[in-house]
Design a protein that fits this description.
Elements lengths: L2 E2 L2 E2 L2 E6 L11 E5 L16 H8 L1 H28 L12 H29 L5 H27 L10 H8 L9 H14 L7 H4 L2
Antiparallel strand pairs: 1-2, 3-4
Length: about 210
């Protein structure tokens, strides 16, 4: 399209969201105004735009699970070292207390579950395995929502210091809060896609389980 003095002709930027976290991610909202193009420029079949967009974002769904794992690992490393070194006025480090130890154990199990699911989803997408799209959706929803819960729980282990700017946990949580919302929101897009898969007549619940 020819450029105009105000930007690109036919594309109107409505708003660019100023995100609280995940600052490197751009979320512009724009619309096309009086844009016409040749039929030869259509990507895919006419009327197949929704499926084309869904498949374009399938691989990124699996990657969001990986993003969540990365944040959880960073939060866990901090909380573990904190628990090993902080006595809170007691004779022993707080990791010796059952409540703290169990909280760390729960967090580590959740991290590993999200990690292996995300790895499997990414491998399935790379190898075009049956069930890859379903696995990618699982990784996105589970990985992103687990990250929010795990980091919040680890902040409880650390206490009020976790909300301090000098502690990384609050910043990690700020980024994690974006993951269930972006790249196809978990409620508005990703669960809807899973729902559609479950409703399809040929759906086999064991296909994703067997994806290599």
């Amino acid at each position: 399209m020819p450029r105009s003095a105000g930007g690109i002709k036919g594309i109107a930027l409505e708003r660019a969201a100023d995100l609280m976290g995940h600052r490197a991610h751009l979320t512009p909202r724009f619309r096309l105004e009086q844009v016409r193009t040749s039929r030869n420029n259509v990507l895919g079949g006419v009327g197949g735009g929704l499926l084309l967009v869904e498949m374009s974002f399938a691989g990124t769904a699996a990657l969001v699970g990986v993003f969540g794992v990365a944040l959880m690992r960073a939060a866990f490393d901090y909380a573990l070292n904190f628990a090993r070194g902080e006595h809170r006025g007691g004779a022993a480090p707080i990791i010796e207390h059952q409540a703290v130890g169990y909280a760390l154990a729960d967090a580590k199990m959740a991290i590993e579950a999200a990690r292996y699911l995300s790895w499997k989803a990414c491998h399935a997408m790379d190898s075009n395995a049956p069930g890859a799209f379903e696995l990618a959706l699982h990784a996105k929803v589970f990985g992103s929502e687990t990250a929010v819960k795990v980091i919040t729980d680890l902040m409880r282990v650390v206490g009020i210091e976790s909300y301090d700017h000098q502690c990384p946990l609050a910043g990690l949580l700020q980024d994690a809060m974006a993951y269930p919302l972006f790249d196809g929101g978990n409620m508005g897009v990703r669960r809807r896609q899973l729902h559609a898969l479950l409703k399809s007549p040929g759906y086999d619940p064991l296909t994703a389980s067997g994806a290599a």
